[in-house]
Amino acid sequence: MNWYVLYTVHYKTKKVISHLNRYNDIIAFMPEYELCQRKTKEIIVKPMFHNYVFVKTHRNQNEFNDFLLSLNDEKKGIIKQLRKEESTALTLKEVEFFETILDEQFVVRLSHGYQEDGLTRVVDGPLKSLEEHIVKVNKNKQCAYLDLYFFDRSICMGIEI
What we know:
By secondary structure, the protein is of the alpha+beta class. Helices cover about 15% and strands about 40% of the residues.
């Protein structure tokens, strides 16, 4: 299955996802992550990448390009496909990463951990397998920043310390 990424107008992102999901061979979603509000301990869900719609489909690059061109009103809100060289499909390594951290609702669940001797130790959650990639933890926002980048954007995931 190929994964593509579309950049959208902020207030039309959910509408674009809804339109694309009407097609049987397309799964469109916006990856999100859980955060724990420090004061209220309430768990909230935020987008990992604002304005980005991920699309999973069996269509190859040319078929997907033709599909996007064939959209009429449904295309409103899509600014462009994100590209790497010749292809907009994610690499196998990127797909494996997202399949590892996202659950079936395309949400990165909250991890739990503690800090010891300046290092962050993860007890459970998707960050457990990525512990060595944590470069910074913001205790106020309850999130961990990784040394992994996606389209030149740092990846942030929720962790309760």
